[in-house]
Amino acid sequence: MVEPWIALILATLSCFVGFGWLALAMNVHWQQVMKTTSAPSPQTRGRLRLLGLTGLLVAVVFCFIADRPSMAVLVWLMLLAACAPSVAILLAWRPHLLRLLWPGFKAKA
Amino acid sequence: MFSQFRLSMTWVHTWFGLVMGFVLMICFFFGALSVFDREIDRWAIPKTRFEPQPMPSFDHLLKPVFEKLRAHPVDMASTAQRVIGDLPHPDTMPMASLYAYTTHRDPVLSIGAEFSIPNKPRNPADDHLHVHGWATIDPRTGDMIPDDALKIGSGWFYPMHYSLNWQWKYIGFYIVGLAAFVMLAALVTGVIMHRKIFRELFTFRPQKRTQRSTLDLHNMTGVVALPFHFFFAFTGLIIFAAYYYLPVSGTLLKPLHDQHEILESERTGLPHEPAGVAAPMASVDAMVAEAKRRWAARDMAGEVGYLYADHLGDQNGYVSIYRAGSDRVALVGEGIHFKASTGEVLREDPPRTAVAEINEFLTGLHLQHFEHWLLRWLYVLGGLLGCICIATGFIFFVEKRKRQHAKTNSQASRLVDAFAVTTVTGMLIATFAILVANRLLPADLVGKGTWEIRAFWGAWLLALLHAIWRSAPVARAAMSPAWREQCWLVALLAAAAVLLNWSSTGDHLLKTLFTDTYWPVAGVDLSLLVTAALSVAVARKLWRVEQVAAQRQAAGEGMDGRFINAEVNHG
């Protein structure tokens, strides 16, 4: 089985990335990150939301791998509390970095 | 109707939040520090900078230490006032019960005992006729740690968190309890006011005006840590529930309480009273071994956290051994109780009821005896998010009103701003002042702890005076320079604490991180340095903001209040 500390790092990463996708699924943040004035297509938005929720779910799975259940739930909730503001701070100061989460998008000139 | 409702919620949120916010800020910040209280203790008492130790052997090490333990002069003095006649000399008082307590983060061991006295009480209802003794020892050698070395983490910051260190009539506890209750109300009203819980989850616009960006930050930190905030305010209240709401078991219902104790002891088989027949004590180490064996058999292998022995030297004597918290949230002791004279098992704590399970989970969640460093740091983060939420609440309050107040010559926002400075940067100054004092004062100074506490309150008082003195610009709808100036002082004190730790103990960061790794001290030093760096960044940023505002004022532009209000009402 995976070492607990590795599972926790993976949980943190997937939680962070999950929130990143969820943020991209929002018009405001999509425009902020992609430097575009258009909204993501409904299809893209759907995929982003699905990916985002999957990220948060994968995080909870890794938490359960790392710790006993009662502990895992707490760790997950606190990871949510840590990762959401991290995404917000990235959006505020380094939004272009979040493009890594949805490569291949080209803003129309 | 609904808008009326929302307005009333806004009123509750604003005013209760403002008044109790000052207290909540203290609770959150010192709560966050308390997560690492033992580590701060190591920083403050260099003699104790060694690895955490398991409970030492009772038979070989603790027994002789307890023989040396005497009633504490402080408790001698307070007990002397409650009894008739003089107390006997401490050397002649027989020890009635004893305890030893440690955690997985404690190098040192806390021990204590109750000593019997023959005196009659002044108040016949006063039935607790014991004098207490206590000490902290090095469990490797049994040496006592000097009694007046203040454990700044667990003995000052931690009680600050739940009692404001205001012991008079326990008023600090009640104020904190009220603040926790208001906190729950502020969370609920805040959610009702905010509406865009998910839509603005990631919204923080630092480039917008102060009023807008602080509100962003206020909403974001409030929402993302909502479960944390809710559960900690709630479980904090649960921990003290019996104390806050029904403090009757020691007063109104005392006879019932006493009778319950007797029935409880009948039920558990642990004697309530001594038999009056002398008996020797069997090997406690053997009892510890048996307790560990039984825990392991339940898939709960662990170390001893708490050891208690009652009716010492009596036929009815018993020894209770509890497991230290480690791998689960619930604070469970899994107590196993032995007959002291024979070492036979009297009782194992039975499986818990569902209600007890929930209670133990909730209290364990708050008191965090578990071993999980990531979760500890996440708790610190949660506490700091709470601090940001409250601090931005203050700033938003002031920003929203100060132009109006400037027009009407009101001093209200000026006063709130001065208090906000005192509770945000002033609190940091007090915290770092006690650390600096700890490293500056000589270790053998008599009453060193008292001086440290004076440095703490003194620094905070000076921060308050400074904040009030410099607050005049707020009444003109400008920014108080006290924020910036105190940020510089915070940075200075934090950096000084790190340097003083190095010069007074030789433990610099290269050593504590790499050559002779000792995380408790390295962690405190690193946190201090990060705080110093952030404070410098904030101070410089504030300086630029002040410059821009001054230029704008000089150019006679003046800020357009209508525009700002429109922007905020929109948000």
How many alpha or pi helices of chain A? 4
What gap, in angstroms, lies between the N and C termini of chain B? 21 Å
Poorly predicted runs of 5 or more residues of chain A: none
**Main β-sheet, spatial strand arrangement of chain B:** 3-2-1-4-5-6-7
Q: Biggest chain pair contact, residues each? A: A-B, 27 and 28 residues
Proportion of β residues of chain A? under 5%
State the helicity of chain B in percent bands.
55-70%
Number of helices of chain B: 20
Strand content of chain B: 5-15%
Shape of chain A: elongated
Distance between the termini of chain A: 49 Å
What is the average per-residue confidence, as pLDDT of chain A, rounded to a whole number? 91
* Oligomer category: heterodimer
Gyration radius of chain B, to the nearest Å?
Answer: 27 Å
**Counted beta strands of chain B:** 7
Overall body shape of chain B: globular
- The parts of chain B where pLDDT drops under 50 for at least 5 residues are 558-571
Mean pLDDT of chain B: 89
Structure description:
The complex is a heterodimer of chains A (109) and B (571). Chain A is mainly α. Chain A has four helices and no strands. Chain A has helices spanning 4-24, 27-34, 42-66, 69-93. In chain A, helix 1 crosses helix 4 and helix 3 (42-66) crosses helix 4. The mean pLDDT of chain A is 91. Chain B contains 20 helices and seven strands. Chain B has a seven-stranded antiparallel beta sheet. In chain B, 60% of the residues lie in helices and 8% in strands. The longest helix of chain B is centred in the C-terminal third of the chain and has 36 residues, at 373-408. The two termini of chain B are 21 Å apart. The model of chain B is unreliable at 558-571 (pLDDT under 50). In chain B, helix 1 (2-34) crosses helix 13 (373-408), helix 2 (37-44) crosses helix 5 and helix 17 (482-505) packs antiparallel against helix 19 (519-554). With 571 residues, chain B is α+β, with helices and mostly antiparallel strands. Chains A and B meet through helix 1 and helix 4 of A and helix 7 and helix 13 of B.
